[in-house]
Amino acid sequence: xxxxxxxxxxxxxxxxxxxxxxxxxxxxxxxxxxxxxxxxxxxxxxxxxxxxxxxxxxxxxxxxxxxxxxxxxxxxxxxxxxxxxxxxxxxxxxxxxxxxxxxxxxxxxxxxxxxxxxxxxxxxxxxxxxxxxxxxxxxxxxxxxxxxxxxxxxxxxxxxxxxxxxxxxxxxxxxxxxxxxxxxxxxxxxxxxxxxxxxxxxxxxxxxxxxxxxxxxxxxxxxxxxxxxxxxxxxxxxxxxxxxxxxxxxxxxxxxxxxxxxxxxxxxxxxxxxxxxxxxxxxxxxxxxxxxxxxxxxxxxxxxxxxx
Length: 308
Prior knowledge:
The protein is of the alpha/beta class. It has 12 helices and 10 strands. The two termini are 22 Å apart.
């Protein structure tokens, strides 16, 4: 078997259950791959670890991947899992925030390498706010939810995904947050993709193909039987994720991810497809708001060569 390291965007959570199912059920073994799934420290960090050769593949924000690739990192998306963005501003319900305009002068928490940071400036611009209107403060990823619940430093909310953070907040005793999805503020993005080095695509396309075949098989199996994927992640991670509450949290998170597998542009509902129109829309936004090279070609950031 080929030894392959997959780098996640964070520590295991429900969205990763498809990967866990593939490992637990032997789908990667069937593809001749001995998969080593490692936790990460944010999407940017995960993609960077692929670019520098520490890991073979990464699961992380497509926007974060574009930023790195545009800066010279020789990486490319070989498939999409979360085809639509799940990013949002999540605010404590006791903070008295009823609109995004109410956030002016308030503190929000995030983590330094989180993909959710990429499109936040677009949200602010479309809400007639500026970066100076918000006190955006970085905290360690493991402390994000606890700091939010404690209102550390007067913080009223966090930047996070609606796939995992609301469930985590409630699992830790918090009330359901007030959610301002990025999609309500003009952010049309591809969510989370799988990246690899262009060198690996060129030199070992067979391995890339086998990895993607096993991954798509895994997420199709999770789509058909979510509870089996939750059981797999519980089996691999153990601890609180193997307890009833942990399994319920994983299932709630996974259900959100399974609802994001196909964008409206994916008319054939082909799992993993990099939809050209979706990428073009996201790259256009990044050119306008994130100083992406105006000549950047959206098609240069992805390939569908490994999607059946």
